Amino acid sequence: MLAFKKQDCDLTLREGIEIYLDYLRQNNKTVGIDESDNAYKVWQCHDSTHVIFGNGVTFEEEALNDFHNLILCSFRWKDYLAYFEDPWLKEHMKYLLKKVGIKKLFVSLFFITKSIVAVIKLRFKIKKKWPLKVPESYLERKICDLREEYGIQILTEKQRPKSFIDWVGAVKNPE
Question: Domain-by-domain residue ranges, the chain?
Fold first, then answer.
């Protein structure tokens, strides 16, 4: 299991992000890279949401993470949409649509329905919304402390997706 998928994970946010990115790289996945001179690190912020919300690397968890961001994050639409303007992401989305297809995309959404309901319920339990633009200082803080401060509960095993689409680029979470 990816260490950040435990509620009481005592790694720093930076360490959690590295675990997430290393696992993607181990599975021959290209990761989004921020330009060093950009004040808003779109990919760093996106990857931090995977860690803080405990979402792994499957296609379904990626979709679920986007839903977490919409429901549990504070953001300006300009910043949220900046992620979708990234040239690499645009090409990646075309690749996904071609390789996954519309039918499997809808099947995937069906697989996460129970998880989406759980995220909506979490919205009413959090203390405050997670900032989509993550302050640099948060990278050195423990994940468990950040979750406590924001009242973030990650999904339980029962609430997580159990079924996953099969496609050529599928990545599974480690056991």
Answer: 3-150
| pTM, to two decimals | 0.87
State which amino acid sits at residue 58: T
Q: Cα(104)–Cα(23) distance, rounded to whole angstroms?
A: 24
Other CB atoms within 10 Å distance of the CB of residue 95: 11
- Give 61-117 pLDDT, tens digit per residue: 989 999 999 999 998 888 778 778 878 888 888 888 888 889 998 999 999 999 999
Helices (H), 27-155: 42-52, 59-72, 77-85, 87-111, 113-123, 143-150
Give φ, ψ of 139 to 5 degrees.
Answer: -60, -25
Give the dihedral of Cα atoms 110, 115, 118, 122; nearest 10 deg: -130
